[in-house]
Design brief:
CATH topology of the largest domain: Quinone Oxidoreductase, Chain A, domain 1
GO molecular function: 3-oxoacyl-[acyl-carrier-protein] synthase activity
EC number: 2.3.1.41
Keywords: Acyltransferase, NADP, Oxidoreductase, Transferase
Shape: globular
Strand content: 25-35%
InterPro entries: ADH-like_N (IPR013154), ER (IPR020843), GroES-like_sf (IPR011032), NAD(P)-bd_dom_sf (IPR036291)
Mean pLDDT: 93
Number of strands: 16
Protein name: Phthiocerol synthesis polyketide synthase type I PpsC
């Protein structure tokens, strides 16, 4: 099968297209014929070796956290899945297994979810990692409840746009930082107060919007880009940062937060992720949540896609077209 592989961790030059054997699904695994693979910041970090603290690389290695496609085969003890079903998932890359930048990938059955009828393959591939990260930050770590207030830092990114929609669906009031060009777009997602992060005055605007501070700040950017995050919280509030894996980014200062009667947490999606992804899928199916704007590139442009994401120059959420183009011609049902 065709795959984008690495023979060692490193920069863009270590990624190459090669032919490798099709994986055999082990007991409890589903073999997916890949139609589309989502491109995430975690992918280039995986290529460069940032995940070495969490997993063992076995080279050659196929990267790629997110997949959409069709069930091709199932391993022993798999129930509920048969060949031909349309599915999406977060792969087992985090456990050292091959990922989605290939024509086939084997994934734990507990992470596989049926694609909602309203989504095509490219849209589905854009969902798992950013939506699961947003869910983890808002609910698993942030404990968000109806009626609470949330500030999403980085509302224009994939994690941020999912966080805005998930928080709104949960009955929260949402403000978000973004570039000026994205403000109107975030309003359409339900954000009550989009804030141009370049304009300054974020703290005053948030305090006027949520007197006394917000219940939850979700930092979807990290790397010290929200230095006044604790100032924006009400007493007892929580600042949750999405784990970036970037060297030197240890997240918010828990000791300082405790001194001020506030809390902090780091969020990341946990394996297996199927239970959470099914809840997100249900919201996608009702239209309460929708994927971000997407641009597709062929698998052969995987290195370019990672370069665009790493540099911050991606024009939209990037997805790799891996399977036959006619599969993505599936028409969204109105």
């Amino acid at each position: 099968m065709r795959a984008a592989i690495i023979d060692a961790t490193g920069g863009p030059d270590v990624l190459r297209i090669a032919n490798v054997p099709v994986p055999e699904p082990a007991a409890g695994e589903v073999l997916i014929r890949v139609i589309c693979a989502g491109v995430n910041p975690a992918d280039w970090k995986c290529r460069e070796g940032y995940l070495g603290h969490f997993m063992h690389y076995s080279f050659p290695f196929v990267i790629g956290f997110d997949v959409s496609g069709v069930v091709a085969a199932v391993g022993e003890d798999v129930t509920g899945w048969v060949p031909g079903q349309r599915v999406f998932a977060q792969t087992d890359v985090g456990a050292g297994k091959w990922g989605s930048y290939a024509e086939y990938v084997a994934v734990s059955q507990d992470s596989v979810v049926a694609i909602p009828e309203c989504l095509g393959y490219a849209e589905a591939a854009a969902v798992p990692t950013p939506a699961l990260a947003a869910w983890a930050g808002l609910f698993d770590e942030g404990g968000l409840k109806p009626g609470q207030t949330v500030l999403v830092h980085g509302g224009g990114g994939a994690v941020g746009t999912f966080a805005i929609q998930l928080a709104c669906a949960a009955g929260a009031r949402v403000a978000a930082t973004c570039s000026a060009s994205r403000c109107d777009e975030l309003k359409l997602l339900g954000c009550q107060m989009p804030l141009d992060y370049r304009g300054g005055g974020t703290a005053n605007a948030v305090q006027d919007w949520a007197v006394g501070g917000v219940d939850l700040v979700l930092d979807a950017v990290g790397c010290g880009t929200l230095p006044d995050g604790l100032d924006l919280l009400k007493p007892g509030g929580i600042l949750v940062a999405i784990m970036t894996l970037v060297s030197g980014d240890s997240g918010p200062d828990a000791a300082e937060a405790a001194r001020r009667g506030k809390r902090t947490a780091l969020a990341y999606s946990r394996m297996p992720s199927g239970a959470r992804l099914r809840e997100i899928s249900a919201l996608l199916g009702t239209g309460k949540v929708r994927p971000p704007r997407i641009e597709c590139l062929p698998l052969e442009d995987a290195a370019l896609a990672l370069e665009l994401v790493q540099s911050g120059k991606a024009p939209a959420k990037l997805v790799l077209q891996v399977g036959p183009p006619e599969a993505e011609a599936w028409v969204r049902r109105k």
